[in-house]
Amino acid sequence: MGVSVEEFLRIVMRLPEVSQYESAGYSGFKVAGKGFGYLWEETETVGLKALVEEQLALVAERPEVFEVQFTAGRFGWVVVRLAGIEADELAEMVLEAWSLSAPKRLLTSV
């Protein structure tokens, strides 16, 4: 079990129109100018956009893998420890995070 940083990058960069940017200590990911994810390579963790209900359910179910990052309106960002998640589950979470920010015209392309 566990996903490497390289695997995470392959998952996220497969999605349409994703752009990556670098900031102090992390990489960010956007679609159509809207953020949906972060990567902290040093700690091998990612932050992903989710609905608040999903954020709370993930953290309650597996606090050793997920933690609350922050909430903003109806969105609850989730920190994911890459060592504790399988690639297929992470890919599903990345797709969901991307879908929450992508324009409707892109949603039919995946």
Low-confidence segments: none
Annotation, overall tally of beta strands: 6
The profile of the biggest β sheet is: 6 strands, antiparallel
Main sheet: which strands, in order across? 1-2-3-4-6-5
Proportion of strand residues:
25-35%
Instruction: Please give the radius of gyration in angstroms.
Output: 13 Å
- H/E series, N to C? HEEEEHEEHH
| Portion of residues within helices | 25-40%
- The chain-level structural class is alpha+beta
Q: What's the number of helices?
A: 4
Average pLDDT confidence is 96
Q: How far apart are the termini?
A: 26 Å
In short:
With 110 residues, this protein is of the alpha+beta class. It has helices at 5-13, 52-61, 87-101, 104-107; strands at residues 18-23, 26-31, 34-40, 45-48, 66-72, 75-81. A hairpin with a 4-residue loop joins strand 3 (34-40) and strand 4 (45-48).
What does this structure look like?
- This protein has four helices and six strands, in the order αββββαββαα.
- The chain has helices spanning 5-13, 52-61, 87-101, 104-107, and strands at 18-23, 26-31, 34-40, 45-48, 66-72, 75-81.
- The chain has a six-stranded antiparallel beta sheet.
- The protein is globular, with a radius of gyration of 13 Å.
- InterPro entries: YjbR-like_sf, YjbR/MT2646/Rv2570-like.
- One of its GO terms (molecular function) is DNA binding.
